[in-house]
Amino acid sequence: MMFVSRLRNWAEHSVGAAESDDAVVVKTTRYLRLAIVTMVIGLSTAVLYEHSKSHLKGVDSGHCWQHSISAYYYTPVQSVFVGALVAIGISLIALKGSTELEDVFLNFAGILAPVVAFVPTPNVGECGSILTDTTNRGTNISNNVTAVLVMAGVAFLVLGALRALDRPVTGVPGAPAHADEASAHRIAVYGYGLALALYVAAWVVFLADREWFNANAHWSAAITMFVFIWLAVVNNAINFHFTRKKVVAAQHAAEEAGGAKPPKRVNRYLAIALLMPAALVIILATPWFGDYDTIWLEASMIALFAVFWVLQTQELWNHGLRSPDTRTGALQQPQGAEERDAG
């Protein structure tokens, strides 16, 4: 009876949210960013572990690499490969961007991630501890892609119905209005329309030409996904620059009034945005990479993708989203980061 009484007392005093709405939002965005980084680490570990156990087909010893990370789908990495891409996709969709454009780019990248997972590359390769074949590839694609398309269709219907009922999923009752709210609304509507158009196109191709879809959907989705990721990085670089510009103006005003001199910060997102296309050009234009140019390119893009999320997680650790704090004139950033980023 003592245990039941304590349990009842605990339940009675645990009613309601444990933290404020702002704290919940900050922690949720923090966890999503950390989850993305964790999934990249997990996928990298699975590939490296498989490499340590690998050998060429027909050879009993020696280590080797597949020609692409996607080809590790046909090795014991398969479960981690699919799970990581699905988890990253969900995280990208759930994570709200600091701008409406970033949110749209992240949503598109997140929508494409499961397609990359469920439509494996047709190239099995000849390296692995154990290699599966493509015997059931077409059957698996038909089942999994149908499930994804139906699921996405339900999501589109729900989003449209909520908008028609004037209860959009992006709306928050009681939230303060912003000056650019109309612009953000237009971007969200255009993003929804473009996503719906691509969704219909995917259904048409999937039903009309299954052979083409099975052969080309993986690389089409993967390339497009990384383009949207790059666009999100570029948008971050631009948003960081102009947010910082407002902050510096406010800090200079505070300095003139006797406050501290504003610290300088390097736009690290711009560096990532420039390194991504640079890696593409260097790897594809350099003969040294040979037949392994694809895996080098994928590895470099994934590494830069992870670095981007590490940087954003660090910058927005205490604030969730980026915005200038006009009251203090300080850019929202993790404690102790000011002096490290001087330059």
TrEMBL record:
Residues 324-343 are annotated as: Disordered. It comes from the Bacteria. The keyword tRNA-binding does not apply. The chain crosses the membrane at residues 31-51, 71-95, 104-125, 145-166, 187-206, 218-238, 269-289, 295-312. The keyword Transmembrane helix applies. Keywords: Membrane, Transmembrane, Transmembrane helix. This is Uncharacterized protein. It comes from Streptomyces sp. R21.
